[in-house]
Every structure is written in structure tokens, then in C-alpha cells.
Specification:
There is one protein chain. The protein is mostly helical. The chain has a domain of about 70 residues: Winged helix-like DNA-binding domain superfamily/Winged helix DNA-binding domain (Arc Repressor Mutant, subunit A, Orthogonal Bundle). Helices cover about 50% and strands about 10% of the residues. Strand 2 and strand 3 form a beta hairpin. Helix 2 crosses helix 6. The longest helix has 30 residues. It starts with 7 loop residues before the first helix and ends in a 13-residue tail after the last helix.
Length: about 150
């Protein structure tokens, strides 16, 4: 019986057992990179994070202990929510002695407002064209195409 030699690729790449990944391969659980507004919307999708932002919107930086006071959540849970808000750039952290103080960053809020204004304007134009078509039986002129920002 004739034995075949393994190819060069097979020799350099060891077999992968089920449930394992090759060295250097990206983990399947790594979330995809999202545009800035999408990350902010995802961060805002939790009532606890909304409550934290509401507390921070009073203007004064707060520690984790201050944010956890009066909450049913542990400091560890508050910390996890603050990390999500930090990744979305909605919260900034500064050290003050042994404490970390968190404050609200309004830049992503302005980005969200700008995004929603653009979407709203596009829908207003589309509805105006629909109204013109329904009322007059002919399509309204479309605005000139503008390149996306």
C-alpha cells in the first residue's frame, strides 16, 4: 500500500480540536466594531446605564460608592456598567487619590443628536415626496444627491 505524504500546509497547521481556535485567530465572542452612534445607542439600551447617566448629568463627578448608594446593585455591577459607558465614550474617569471619579461626556450625545437630525430630515423629505405623489399624482423632485459625511 502506498502512503501519501502530507502537504506542506497540513504539516505547518496542526489540527484544531472542536471548541478550540487557532493561535492568532479572532475569538468568536469578540463584538464587531461599531460606528460611534451605534455604540452609544447600545450603551443607552439598558435602564441601569440610563440611571447612571441621569445621576452623572447633575454635573458633579461621582465615585462608584456614590453611584451605588441607594441602588440595589453591587459596586461590581455598577463598575461593569460604567465600563460599557466608558467604551461608548459617554463617561470619563479621573483618579482622585484612591477613588475613581466618573463624569458625563456630552460629545457622544451631540453625535447622537446630529445623527437623529440627519435621519429625521431624510424621513421628512421622503414623507413630503409621498404626500406630493398622493395629492398630485406625480412624484416630487428629489433633492440632489449629497455625499455622506
Amino acid at each position: 500500500m502506498k502512503r501519501s505524504l502530507p502537504s506542506a500546509r497540513a504539516a505547518s497547521t496542526p489540527p484544531v480540536r472542536p471548541g478550540r481556535r487557532r493561535p492568532g485567530a479572532r475569538a468568536a465572542s469578540t463584538p464587531p466594531v461599531r460606528p460611534a452612534p451605534a455604540g452609544a445607542f447600545a450603551a443607552l439600551g439598558d435602564p441601569t446605564r440610563l440611571a447612571l447617566l441621569n445621576t452623572l448629568s447633575r454635573g458633579e463627578p461621582a465615585s462608584i460608592a456614590q453611584l451605588a448608594r441607594g441602588s440595589h446593585l453591587t459596586r461590581q455591577a455598577i463598575t461593569k456598567h460604567l465600563r460599557v459607558l466608558e467604551r461608548a465614550r459617554m463617561v470619563r474617569c479621573a483618579r482622585s487619590g484612591r477613588e475613581r471619579l466618573f463624569s458625563l461626556d456630552l460629545a457622544p450625545v451631540h453625535e447622537i443628536r446630529d445623527y437623529l437630525d440627519r435621519v429625521s430630515a431624510a424621513w421628512d423629505q421622503a414623507l413630503a415626496r409621498l404626500q406630493a405623489f398622493v395629492e398630485h399624482g406625480q412624484p416630487a423632485a428629489r433633492p440632489a444627491h449629497r455625499p455622506r459625511r
